[in-house]
Amino acid sequence: MRHKFCFATATATAILCAGFSLSAQAEELVVGSFGGSFADNVKACHVAAFEKATGATVSLKLGNSSQFAAAIRATAGKPDMDIVYIDNSLAAQTQGEKLNEIIDRKKLKNAGDVIASAWGKDDAYVVAMVSATALVYNPKLVKTPPTSWLDLADPAYTGKYAIGDISGTSGLHYLLALNKLKGGTLENIDPGIEAIKPIAKGSAVLYTQADQLLSLFEREEIAIAPWYPDRAGVAIDKGLSLAVAYPKEGAVGILPAVIIPKGTAKSELAHKFLDQILSAEGQGCFSERAYIGAVNTKVKLSDKLQKIVPNGESLEKAWFVDPEIVAKNSANWTRRWQREVAR
C-alpha cells in the first residue's frame, strides 16, 4: 500500500508541476497603443495572430505619444510597457535619451521586406505605417470642400470646428503647418503661435485623444477639424458623414513607429510581436481596416484605400517633419503653447 501511495503522490505532483509549467509559459506582453479604432485594429491584426503563434497574452495600455514618452522616462530602465506604438518624433526623442532598446533585425523574419527608410537611427525604432494630418469635414454641412490649412479661420466655420492640443500629433502638426504658411521655420514658430491663438480660442475643444472628435462629428457640433484620414475612413465605414481633404499646401505626414523600451524583461517576446506588426499579413490587415499606408513592400493598397490614404500626389506633397528637429524643440513648443495658446 505504501508503494501505491508513493506512486499516486508522485503522479499528482507531476500533474501539478505540469500545470504550473503551462501557466508559466503563458507570458503577458504589455503593449502601449493609441486608443479607439487604432486599438481595435491592433487587436485584430497584430494581437490575435501573435497570441495564437506564441501562446502569450497581450495587455494593451492606451494613450497618446506624449503620454507614452513621459511614462518611458518616468520608468527609465524598468518600463511598465514592453513594446510601444509612438509617433516617430517622440521615438527619436526617447532614442536621444537612450531609453530605447536597439532592435535586433536578425530576430525579425520580415525585416528584409520593410522599406529601408522605415528604420530609425541605429535601429532604435522602426516606422510601422504611413499616415497624415489632413482636413476632415462633414460634406452635409460643408458644401465646398476646404482646400487650405487657412480655411479653418474662415468666419463660415465659427463655432463649428475643433483643433488638437499640442500634446497630440494633429495639434502639433496644425501649428507647424500654420507656422510654415505664415513664414515661420522650425527654429522660429512665432508666426504659428500668433496665427493659432484666435483659432484655439474659438475651437469647440482642444482635443487630446483622436477619437474625441467622433461624438462631436456625430452630433454635428463641429463641421471640420484637422484630423487623421485613417480615423475618418473607419468612421465613414460605420456610416458617419465625413470626407477627407488634402490641403493644397500639403498634408503633414505621420510616421507611427514602434519602440521597445530599454530594460524590458520581455525583449524576446517584444521582438516576436514586432515581427507580426511588420509582416505582410499584419501590415495588409492593418492597412485595409485602418486606412493607413504600409511599410512592407509586399502589401498592395486596394482602390478603396487609395481614395483616402496619402498616396500619389497627396503623398508627394506631404511634409514629413524631421523627427530630430521636433525632438529637440518639442519641450519649448509645449511650454509656449501652454503659456500663450491654451491659457
Detailed description of the structure:
- There is one protein chain.
- The protein is α/β, with parallel strands linked by helices.
- Helix content is 45%, strand content 14%.
- It is built from 13 helices and twelve strands.
- A five-stranded mixed beta sheet has the order 2-1-3-11-4, sandwiched between helices.
- It is globular.
Keywords:
disordered N terminus; 2 domains; D-Maltodextrin-Binding Protein, domain 2; five-stranded antiparallel beta sheet; 12 strands; five-stranded mixed beta sheet; single chain; 343 residues; 14% strand; alpha/beta
In short:
With 343 residues, this protein is an alpha/beta fold.
Secondary-structure content class: alpha/beta
Question: How many extended strands?
Answer: 12
Number of domains: 2
Count of alpha/pi helices: 13
What is the arithmetic mean of pLDDT? 90
Rg (C-alpha, Å): 23 Å
**What's the overall geometry?**
globular
SSE arrangement, N to C: HEHEHEHEEEHHEHEHEEEHHEHHH
Compile the SSE list and pairings.
Blueprint: H1 2-25, E1 28-33, H2 36-54, E2 57-62, H3 65-74, E3 83-87, H4 88-96, E4 126-127, E5 129-137, E6 163-164, H5 169-181, H6 190-202, E7 206-207, H7 212-218, E8 224-227, H8 229-237, E9 243-245, E10 252-254, E11 256-259, H9 267-278, H10 280-290, E12 293-294, H11 303-306, H12 313-316, H13 323-341
Parallel strand pairs: 1-2, 1-3, 6-7
Antiparallel strand pairs: 3-11, 4-11, 5-8, 5-9, 5-10, 5-12
Helix pairs in contact: 2-9, 2-10, 3-4, 4-13, 5-6, 6-13
